[in-house]
Amino acid sequence: MRQKVRIAPSILSADFARLGDEVRAMDAAGADLIHIDVMDGHYVPNLTIGPGVVRALRPLTRLPFDVHLMCSPVDGLLPAFAEAGADILTVHPDAGPHTHRTVQLIKSLGRKAGIALNPATPVAALDHLWDDIDLVLVMSVNPGFGGQAFIASQLDKIRALRARIDAGERPIDLEVDGGVNVETAQACVAAGADMLVAGTASFTGGPDAYASNIARLKGRP
Ligand SMILES: O=C(CO)[C@@H](O)[C@H](O)COP(=O)(O)O
Ligand SMILES: [Fe+2]
C-alpha cells in the first residue's frame, strides 16, 4: 500500500446493546479512530446517535472521535457534539446554506473540521474552503446506511483530491466512507486515501475477529 492508513470503525455496525464494550474492543483491536455516524431522519432517512451517547462513550477510550454529521441544519448541533467529546466534526456542504460559516464555527469550538462529499458532489464544492478544513471525507456510498456497496466511480475523486491536497501547503486528511472492505480498501489507498471508515468490515465476525479485521484493512495478511 502507498502509505500508512488509519482505520476508523463506524459504530453504526456495532452491537448497540453493548456499545461501550464494542468501542473498548475496537480500541484494543488496533483501531485508530472511532467513527460516529449522526443521522437526523431528515437529511438522510435514518436516525442514529446524539451527543448524549458520545458523552457516555468518551471516557472509555483515548482514540479520537470522528463524528460524521448527516444533519440539516447542522450548525445548532455542533456545540453539543464538541462539548460531548468529538475531535473531528464533519459536515455535508449541501446540508446547509453557508458551509464556510459552519467550518468557522467548528474551528471556533476548537475541533477539526471535515467536509463530506456525497457521490454526486464535485470536488469544486471545496473551492472556498481549502484554507480552513482539516479533512475531506469522500462518501463512496449514498449516506444513510451501513452495509452498502462501494461506488467505484469515487476512486477518480479520491485521486483528484490527493493531487489537490499534495499541491497545497496544509496537511489535510483524506478519508473514504462506505463499502470499504479488504479489496476496496486497497483501491482507496492506491488512489490516495489515508483514512478509511469501515463499519461492516470492522465489526463482522464479532469481537474475536476485530484485530484481524483491522489488520487486514490496513493491508496486513
Ligand atoms: O456514513 C456512513 C453511511 O452513511 C458510513 O459511515 C457507514 O456506517 C459505513 O458502513 P459500511 O459501509 O462500512 O458498512
Ligand atoms: Fe460515516
UniProtKB/TrEMBL annotation:
Keywords: Carbohydrate metabolism, Cobalt, Isomerase, Manganese, Metal-binding, Zinc
SUPFAM superfamilies from the UniProt entry: Ribulose-phoshate binding barrel (SSF51366)
Catalytic activity: D-ribulose 5-phosphate = D-xylulose 5-phosphate
Pfam families in the record: Ribul_P_3_epim
GO cellular component: cytoplasm
Superkingdom to which the source organism belongs: Bacteria
UniProt-annotated catalytic positions: D37 (proton acceptor), D177 (proton donor)
Pathway note: Carbohydrate degradation
Enzyme Commission number(s) of this protein: 5.1.3.1
InterPro entries listed in its UniProt record: Aldolase_TIM, Ribul_P_3_epim, Ribul_P_3_epim-like, RibuloseP-bd_barrel
Assigned protein family: Belongs to the ribulose-phosphate 3-epimerase family.
Function as written in the Swiss-Prot or TrEMBL entry: Catalyzes the reversible epimerization of D-ribulose 5-phosphate to D-xylulose 5-phosphate.
Protein name: Ribulose-phosphate 3-epimerase
Organism: Stella humosa
